[in-house]
Every structure is written in C-alpha cells, then in structure tokens.
Specification:
Helices cover 28% and strands 24% of the residues. By secondary structure, it is α+β, with helices and mostly antiparallel strands.
C-alpha cells in the first residue's frame, strides 16, 4: 500500500491586502448578495467574476419553492458570462454571503456542483481561476479551482 498526501495552500488576507482589482471584485460580490432571491433559506450568496478582458459579471443565488429548481450565485454568474462572452476565460471569482444577521464572519465556500462547474471552466480555457472567498474576518485566496478539487473529473477523463 502507498499513501498519497494531498495538501493545498490557502492565503488568508484582509481586504486591504488584496489588489485594487480584487477589492473591487469583493465589493461587487458583497453587493450581489443584495440581489439574491432567498426567501426560503434567508441565506443570500453573491458572486462577482472578472473575465480576462476585465468585464465583471454578477450572480446571486435564486431560490424556488419547487426545490431544487433554484441555482447558486456562482453558477448564475458563470453561465451568464459564458453565454454573453463565450470567448473570454474566467480570471477571478469572488464569493460573499449573508444571513439575517449580516455578512458572514467566516468565508463561504462553493458547493460541490459549483466547484465542478468552475473546474470545467479552468479545463476549457486551460487557465487557472483565482477564487476569493469573503468573510468579515478575512478572505481566503485560492489560486486555482484544482486546489479545492485535487481529485477532479474533467473532459479528458471521459476518454481515459
């Protein structure tokens, strides 16, 4: 038997330690939480992504009484970006969340489905996607989706 150790490095930064571009993206993700339709869970998630050309696309979770017909913030932003800018790779995505008490202290992480969609975007364009996970106490900075999905399933695996 052989053991395999998988580890990742995640930076924890304060907002002022981010680049100006990243700070804008975080602010847009926070703003996007106010556009959430989360009348059932009262858990609003906002996403802001920057495309390689500098365009910013927002997304917010959208719930529906007919569960699971809603959609996560990350995927609403990614799918809108891909439909309107199919030739533009995703450069960075910022994600923030709030509940009835306000913005979360601890950074929120994407669900498994959103991680898979982001991974496929990385695979499609062959470029890493930086992830900024916002919390009022700090921001996790992750340099690639593969860092949070080390045992991944992408298009090449369909023919392996």
């Amino acid at each position: 038997m052989k053991k395999i150790n998988i580890s990742i490095d995640i930076e924890l930064k304060q907002k002022e330690e981010l680049s100006a571009e990243e700070q804008i993206l975080v602010d847009k993700a926070i703003e996007a939480t106010t556009r959430s339709y989360s009348v059932y869970s009262h858990f609003a998630v906002g996403a802001a992504l920057m495309l390689e050309n500098g365009d910013i696309v927002l997304g917010a979770n959208q719930e529906n009484a007919a569960f699971p017909s809603g959609l996560c913030a990350e995927r609403t932003a990614i799918f809108a970006a891909q439909v309107n800018n199919p030739d533009q790779p995703l450069k960075t995505i910022a994600i923030a969340a709030r509940n009835e008490n306000g913005l979360l202290k601890k950074p929120i992480t994407p669900c498994g489905g959103c991680r898979q969609v982001m991974l496929e975007i990385e695979d499609r364009y062959k470029k890493p996607v930086k992830i900024l996970l916002y919390g009022t106490e700090g921001i996790y900075v992750i340099n690639s989706v593969k860092d949070i999905m080390p045992l991944s399933f992408v298009s090449d695996d369909l023919t392996a």
